[in-house]
Every structure is written in C-alpha cells, then in structure tokens.
Amino acid sequence: MSPQKRVKNVQAQKRTSQGSSSFQTTLSAWKVKQDPSNSKNISKHGQNNPVGDYEHADDQAEEDALQMAVGYFEKGPIKASQNKDKTLEKHLKTVENVAWKNGLASEEIDVLLNIALSGKFGNAVNTRILKCMIPATVISEDSVVKAVSWLCVGKCSGSTKILFYRWLVAMFDFIDHKEQINLLYGFFFASLQDDALCPYVCHLLYLLTKKENVKPFRVRKLLDLQAKIIYFKNSENLWKTALLAVKQRNRGPSPEPLKLMLGPANVRPLKRKWNSLSVIPVLNSSSYTKECGKKEMSLSDCLNRSGSFPLEQLQSFPQLLQNIHCLELPSQMGSVLNNSLLLHYINCVRDEPVLLRFYYWLSQTLQEECIWYKVNNYEHGKEFTNFLDTIIRAECFLQEGFYSCEAFLYKSLPLWDGLCCRSQFLQLVSWIPFSSFSEVKPLLFDRLAQLFFTSTIYFKCSVLQSLKELLQNWLLWLSMDIHMKPVTNSPLETTLGGSMNSVSKLIHYVGWLSTTAMRLESNSTFLLHFILDFYEKVCDIYINYNLPLVVLFPPGIFYSALLSLDASILNQLCFIMHRYRKNLTAAKKNELVQKTKSEFNFSSKTYQEFNHYLTSMVGCLWTSKPFGKGIYIDPEILEKTGVAEYKNSLNVVHHPSFLSYAVSFLLQESPEERTVNVSSIRGKKWSWYLDYLFSQGLQGLKLFIRSSVHHSSVPRAEGINCNNQY
Amino acid sequence: MNPEWVTASSRHFIETEFHHVGQAGLKLLTAGDPLFLGLPKCWDYRQTMDSYNAPESTPSASSRPEDYFIGATPLQKRLESVRKQSSFIPTPPRRKIPQCSQLQEDVDPQKVAFLLHKQWTLYSLTPLYKFSYSNLKEYSRHLNAFIVAEKQKGLAVEVGEDFNIKVIFSTLLGMKGTQRDPEAFLVQGLILSPRLEYSGTILVDCNLCLLGSSDPSTLAFQVAGTTGACHHTRILSKSQLPSENREDKVLWTGWFCCIFGDSLLETVSEDFTCLPLFLANGAESNTAIIGTWFQKTFDCYFSPLAINAFNLSWMAAMWTACKMDHYVATTEFLWSVPCSPQSLDISFAIHPEDAKALWDSVHKTPGEVTQEEVDLFMDCLYSHFHRHFKIHLSATRLVRVSTSVASAHTDGKIKILCHKYLIGVLAYLTELAIFQIE
C-alpha cells in the first residue's frame, strides 16, 4: 500500500470511528467545539480571498493565511470537521505557496518541522510539509535539534526520516549555528546502521565532522561502510531552485541603491563558492607540493624531508624551537594567522618566499573581503569585521604590522566612509610599519585628514588615539631596531637621523591636526584630553625610548590647555611640562657627558621654546604675572577689558579651573563662613592650599611645581639654560 | 552576441552611423562632465596610469636614489611599487597600440585558434609558489583525484584511480610577450567518452591534443560526479545509443598566462611563477574546484578580475586603433543606466570603419594611445549620441565594448576574435591583473 493510500485509509477509519462513538473525552470535545468557529473563520477568509487568487493577494493577506495554516497544523488533525481534507489541502497549499515564493521564517519552520516529524498527520502530509521547509533566510539550530529528537521517538516512517536527512543536508548551510547539532554527532553516527538512511547520514556526517569527532572506532566503521556504498546520494535535487532563491535572498538587495552607480562593477562573489568554510585557510602541511616535487628532489632535500616536522604535531613553543630548522610549512601560508606558534615563526623567519606568500594571500584576501569595495556585499560585514579583528590580534601578538595591511590601507582609505569597521580600521592605521613619513603622508595621512576634519568629535578622538598608538609602535620598533643592529641596516631610513626626522614629522603632523581640530570643535575639553594623551607619549621619547628626539606641542594646544576650564586638563599639562623638563635636562646632561658634537644635539630653539612655555605657565599659575613674558598682551588692551585684578586671575587660586578647589579649601578651613574670600589664600595658607590641591589628586601639578618652581620666598621660574656652550 | 551580456529587461537598441567625424561642430564635454563624477573616486584608474607609466615612459622614476635602500627586502620593494601606484601623479599614461602578430614563432596555430571566439571569465592570480613545468603530468593526476574527491564530498579516493573525468595540463608554447615571461599553460577538464568507461580502458594522459568542443556547459561535473552510482547506469545506457558522440567532451578549460609581465617578475624570487592572468571557460562550480586546488597546492589566490568603465574605454580606443584587413563585427558599446527597479541598457553600434575613421581623427601620436585621445574618442561618441537622442551617455556606466578585435564586459568576461592582436589584448589584461594583485 502506498503511503498516500494508507493515510487516506487511516483518516477514513478515524472519521468513521468518530461518527459512531457519541462520547468524547473532554479534551476532544473541546477540540470539536473549537473547530466549527475556526473553520468558519477560515471559510470567511476564503470567501474574501478565493484560493485561485493567491498570486494577486497582497502580502498581508498571504501572511494571515500562512499564520492560520501554521495554527491549523499546530493544533493537529481535526476530527469532526466535514470538509477536513479540503481544509488540510488548502492550508498545505498556503504553506507550500509561501515557502516556494518567499521562504518561511525560522519560527514557522520550527513549528512545521515539529509537526512533520511528530507524526500528527499522515505520511503524505509530513512529506509535503518537509518538502516545503524552505527558509526565508536561516533555520534556527534549535528547530533542528528538536526535530532530531523526534527521530528517536519513532513516530515517523522511514521515508520521512530519509526525507528529513536529505532536507538537513540540503539546508545545512542555512542553519544559523551548528554547535548543538555537532553534539548529536554520536546519534547521527549510530544512524549509519540503517541501510536506507546510510548514504544521507554519511553526507551529513561529512558536513558535520570536526577533528575531535574522528575516533578510531568510527574510522573502522566507515571503512566497513565504504566497501558497501561508494557515493553520497544527492540530497539537493529536491530543493535546487529553492536553495538558489534562498541564497539570492540572503544576498539581498542593496540597502543603498545609490551605490549602484558607484560600484566599479558587481564583482562576482567568489569566496562564497570557493572557500565556503572560512576566510582563513585551514592549516595543512604542504603535502601536495612535496609529492609533486619529489621527482626532482635532490639527495639533500630528501634527507631534510625525512627529518621534517609535521605541522599537525606542533603543539608547544619548545617544540617549535626544537624543530624550527625543519618545520614543514603549511600549504597555504594564510593559515598561520590562526596559529600563534606559526606566527612566531613568521615573525622571526627571514625566508622571503614565506613572507611573500603571506603578503600576497593577505593582500588579496583583504581586497576580496573588503565590504566597501563592493555593491550588495553589506551582509558580509560581520565576517569582514571578524577577519580584521583576527589580523589585528595577530599584529598585537607579534607587536608588528603587516605590509599587506599597509598596502590595503593605501587602496581602501580613499573609499572608506569613516564608519564601517571604524575601530578595526583605525587599529590597522596604528599598526602601519615604520616608514618614511613624507612618503606615507600623501597616501595615508592626508586622506585620513580629510575624514578627520569632516567627521564628528568622536571620530577625531579615535583618530588621535590611534595615531598615539602608531607613534608608540614606531618608537618601540625604532628603539629595538637601534639597539639590535647597526643603524645603517635599518631598511627604510639609512640613518637614525632620517628615522628621527620621520617621527618628528609625524608628531608635527598630529600637532597640526590637533590645532585645527581644536578650532573646529571650539576648544572641546574632551578632544583636548585625547590631544594631551598624545603629547604624554611625545614628551617622554628621550627617556622612555632612548631616542634622541624632543618635540614640543604647538602653541595652539599649549595655550588652550593652559586656559582650559577643566582642572584635569591643566593637571595633565603640568605633568607633560614636567616630563618635558626631565627629558630636556637628561638630554642636556648627556651632551655634557659625551662632549662630542653629535648630530642629535637639540637646537637651542627647542630649549627656548620650552622656556617660553614654562615662563608663561609659571607667570600665570604661580607668580601672578600672566601677560608679561610668555603671553604678551598690551597693558592698554588689558585695561580696556575692565578686569581689575587680571594679574591674579590666572594663578592656582583664581584660575577658573582651580577656583572651585579654592572655595572648597576655604570651606574646609572654616565651614561656618558665609562668604569666602579666595584672595585670602596667601603666605602660609598658600602652601596649605597647595597641599590640599595635591591631596585632591592633582599629581601633575605637584610634580610640575616641585620641579619647576623654586621654593623660596620669592617664587620664580626656573628655566633650562639654553645657552649652548658646548 | 552572448545572451549573458544582455541582462536588462528593457534594452534599447539604437543603431546610428557616423557620417561625419572629427568636425569642429562636435560639442565636446569638458573633463568635469558627469562621467568623471559618476566614476568612483577610486584609486584604480589613477593607479593604472601610474603603474603603466612607471616602467615605460619615466624610466628615471625607478632610479631615484631613495628606491635603493640598503638591504631592502622584496616586501619593501613591493610596498614601494604599491606606493608608487597609489600616489597621484597626474602624468598622462600612454600605451602602445597593439602590433600585428607578436606571437612567437613556435606557437601552435591550432592552439591559438582554440583560444579565440570563446568567452573567457577573467581572474587575477598571485604568483604560484613552487610550480614546475616539468611536473604537469603529476599535477593532472593530483587534480583529477582532487576533483573526484570534491565531487564525492569527502570519501577518500586513491590517487590515480580512474574516473570519468580527466584533467589535462599542457603548455601553450610561445604565448608570451617577452622571453622573460613564463610559459602559458592550459588546463582542460574532459569528460571521458562512455565507450572507454564501459570497456574499462584507461586513457593514457600523454595525449595533449586539444579538443575543440565548443559547448562546455551542456554537461557539468555535477552530472558526472555527484549523482554517483546512478550516474554509471546512465552513462552505460547512453553508450548504447548509436547516435551518442563517442568523442571526449571538454567540460571546462582554463589557461594561465603572463604577457609583458615585467613589472611583476621583477619583484618575486625564482620560487614563484608569475602567471597573473587566468582565463576560464566552463561552469563556475568547476572553476571553483580547480581554482581551489591551485590555491591549496601553489599557495596562490584567484580574484575575479572586473574591468571598470575607465579600462573599457581604453580597450575601446586601443582596439579601434588596430589595423584590420576586414572587420568581422560591428563596433558596439553597451551602457547601463542604473534606474530602479529595472535597469536600462543602451546599445550603440557603429560601423567599424566609421569608428576607425573617428579614431584616426582624434589620434595624434603615432603608434601610441594617450589618455587625452581616449577621452576625446569617447567624448565624440557621447556628443554624437547626445545630438541625436538627447541622452548624456557620460552619465551612465559603460558595461561592454565589442569590436572586431575582441569584446569585453565589465563583469570580467572577454572574447577575443582576432588572431593578430591576441597578444596585444592579453598584454593589457595582464596589466590589469597585475594591477589588481599589487
């Protein structure tokens, strides 16, 4: 008896039995009660939307009908309905139509799959439901797990099981996660026993198998099986067109139709088809190449080969060290990106082919993956972000940038919108390998600057942050480079002077960016913090990195910080000035010790500049002579402002950013006082006040005052002697 | 033409003829016209100029002192060349007009004929690591096994086991621009004739003759491979039919070449074989399998090579400039107007002699094509079209150019028609491919 017939018979039996028995259980009575209203609803709906008019029905109606159909199936076969077959048929049609037209949502698939495998309906219905389980976009993993659990119950027939496995294989790529399914590996493997299921289960296992699933007993079993069956049976046939449609849908229409104009061309999405698993190739030792080349291998090669160390066995760092001379390299160099041990290898190896292979792979992959190169490729954004993250992780791990990334930046920066993968992109910028600034400037920094000036303050801050990291990476690299090998071997700049020149150009460039940004953002404190963070790195180059370079900040930054309304800014400024002082004094001392005229003696201009800033600062904060030296403002103009006591107005007491400290200091002294007179802070109180400030966490101020101000009765600035006598 | 190229639902075919060309009355659009605005402000067209320019017209550029760093590694050299490409130096590029028959003497005319009149899909390919021309047989054996394994999804297959698909590697001798260019080679995927399968004869793979079957898409590997057991029966039943063609069928063809690839050759060591241009004909799923094998075996990387509108107009100019004894096809341009929901294609066909006449009128420097000439040539076409149809073609996107020499589609599809200019066409494509992989 064909399944179709059998179902009909069973249904017929049910109907007759229902008709004969007048007593029902309460539940089924309820069901019967429910039924007429339900079917009425449906028929009403049916009147409005004749079945034949499905193509013309609008989406909403279609959606409603689908919901109703799903609800119908969820409730299970209705027993007392007279036109039961008709209703069932109608609902099935609805589901099929929608499924083949638009695909089903994952929730609907969840429900229907459950129904198909639970055996509520007959085999024919189950088959039809299974056949139209076409996802709109994805299938949730849970649905599959639930479905598999039905297989164990034994409610569904063999043919349904087969169909389910075929469906699973065909739809495998659309399941959103596979971890849970992989946990059922043992179950699937056991299903190999069933001869009818075997070919499909084999195929499923092929898709599912991970390294950890491979066990000797399984291999033995499979070898047995291989003797019996040779090929997988094709599972996709049934759904071929549907699969294409889903893929098309998943690719989706371009969210930005405007881009149609701009794309160089809709480049064929190659990767989807070629490397379906992941962007980064799987680690494989180069067996092909080895075998292919074996004919012409010389004796020494053979000897080397015999002692070669297979990658698969490489587990630990000591192993790497022991076998570094005879390591079998991966067949695709890109796979090292996922393997930290091999990254070590890449980092220290000077073997050009290895590096070049990696370079080519990474450049091409970046280009291929980069989402803003292509139209209609936005849904791969997540994948691209992950890929960039992997690269950045590798770069951080190695503490070294990849040349491919730099080349990629050259090409992609002009096309970048400044939003997409911003954090990753800026991190790539910070890992640009050290090179001559003037060469890189037009390719990178000028293009970045365009975005910088036209974007929000947050973007500006992120750029400054990444430039700070870039500076730090360059400095680290240079300080290592100088100490590790003779200066002349440095690849990009033949002299240390050249390298220093490049770094100083970078700092000046950031200075220019910062000054302009401050003007554009009307002296935002937030931005200023990021700028001063950058200069915190800059001021310590001489001491921290042992590199002969001191570059001061531009006046636009210095005075903005000095006149800031924010105490933490002023504190940071004080700290930076303190560090500049340390660095410059150290440099001076070295010059005295060495007594040789090296090319790295700082010009007296640097010292003068520093002293100028220092004078201004001490004049403002300490000596209350703000506009004499340093910032010079004509007294007449100051008179015109009408501020009576402008001389005091910028000292540590009256400075707008410190005023609140002064008030709380006074209130602390005498809490009952109704009016506070900040001018009363002088003499002894002045030094108590200072202690109070220091206790409030203004450590930068403390360091600055300790180092730059003589504690005498007459405070005065102590500059650095700029007369270069040597 | 090829149906794949006619994608739009509404296609306006407008045929006009040039009676008068190069007249003072032609209203030329300025450089600031919408064409340039419509193009992405991308690096590639500027770079193309520079990349070409660097070795040829400004030899002094490479001898700048800062290019010779002490101990510069190939990677740094690479980066240098990328920088050179990426920087904007507004030098007008020039290219040579393809010369007649630059093929080497030892080239096999049968093989050349085989490459013509087929639609090839273009890919760029990074240098192949440890590729050796002496191992071609070995490779074909491995690739065979790989394909079989792929098609059967993972069941282990012994290397060399006979299957009904055969992959053959063969060199295309003489297909090169200079002596330094590595030899081009061809890979063919054949489906063995059922008779052989039936009688169990193993085909010896030393037979490297080319099978000129023209329609590779009728049978796909899938049919042969994935259906597995049932396939055998099908083949057997087919072989009983008397009308069945007993010849082996070519399913898929792909070839690798490098024509005037000096700029790339300079930067890699001898472990690598530079064949930056790869052309495939056959189902893409097959290209994917074979490409994957190459990627795994030689650590190379295939990327689809699209041709942007800028390069298409260069092709149009260069190919129009070629001297032809007789024209086999009209010169035809296809523009795409991206309007929602259906795009509109505008086809503009010109008699090839008229096109040539137009070219001659804008052409000044003998033997060379310059950027201005290309722009002028295209502008003339635009203004002519505008005068008749009041449509500014410069605001649309050029998607296809077909001439008697060759035709190219922006999706990276090319068909070469003229034997004489084969090398010239390939040289430009090689240049584009090299540009993409740098």
Flag low-confidence runs of chain B: 1-71, 154-162, 195-246
The radius of gyration computed from the alpha-carbon positions of chain B, rounded to a whole number of angstroms, is 24 Å
Q: How many strand units of chain B?
A: 16
Radius of gyration of chain A: 38 Å
Q: Which outline of chain B best applies?
A: globular
Proportion of residues in extended strands of chain A? under 5%
Low-confidence segments of chain A, ≥5 residues, pLDDT <50? 1-57, 252-269, 287-305, 486-493, 713-717, 722-726
Q: Sum up the overall morphology of chain A in one term.
A: elongated
Secondary-structure-derived class of chain B: alpha+beta
What number is the mean pLDDT of chain A?
Answer: 77
Key features?
heterodimer, A: 726 residues, mainly alpha, 35 helices, 62% helix, elongated, B: alpha+beta, twelve-stranded mixed sheet, 14 helices
Write up what this structure looks like:
The complex is a heterodimer of chains A (about 725) and B (about 450). Chain A has about 725 residues and is mainly alpha-helical. Chain A contains 35 helices and no strands. Chain A is elongated, with a radius of gyration of 38 Å. In chain B, α2 crosses α3. At the A-B interface, α11, α14, α16, α20 and α22 of A face α3, α5, α10 and β10 of B.
What would a concise description of this structure say?
Chain A has helices at 3-20, 26-48, 59-75, 84-101, 106-118, 123-131, 141-153, 158-170, 179-183, 185-190, 198-208, 216-228, 240-251, 259-262, 271-274, 287-292, 299-306, 317-323, 340-348, 352-369, 381-398, 403-412, 422-430, 437-454, 457-484, 496-520, 525-538, 541-544, 555-562, 567-594, 604-621, 635-641, 659-669, 684-695, 699-708.
Q: What's the structural blueprint in terms of helices and strands?
A:
The complex is a heterodimer of chains A (726) and B (438).
Chain A lengths: L2 H18 L5 H23 L10 H17 L8 H18 L4 H13 L4 H9 L9 H13 L4 H13 L8 H5 L1 H6 L7 H11 L7 H13 L11 H12 L7 H4 L8 H4 L12 H6 L6 H8 L10 H7 L16 H9 L3 H18 L11 H18 L4 H10 L9 H9 L6 H18 L2 H28 L11 H25 L4 H14 L2 H4 L10 H8 L4 H28 L9 H18 L13 H7 L17 H11 L14 H12 L3 H10 L18
Chain B lengths: L9 E6 L18 H5 L4 H14 L17 H13 L7 E3 L12 H7 L3 E7 L2 E2 L6 H16 L13 E8 L11 E8 L2 H6 L21 H5 L3 H11 L9 E9 L4 H4 L6 E2 L3 E5 L2 H15 L3 E3 L4 H13 L9 E7 L6 E7 L1 H11 L5 E3 H19 L7 E6 L3 E4 L3 E4 L5 H16 L1
Parallel strand pairs in B: 1-12
Antiparallel strand pairs in B: 2-13, 3-9, 3-10, 3-16, 4-8, 5-6, 6-7, 7-9, 11-12, 11-14, 14-15, 15-16
Helix pairs in contact in B: 2-3, 11-13
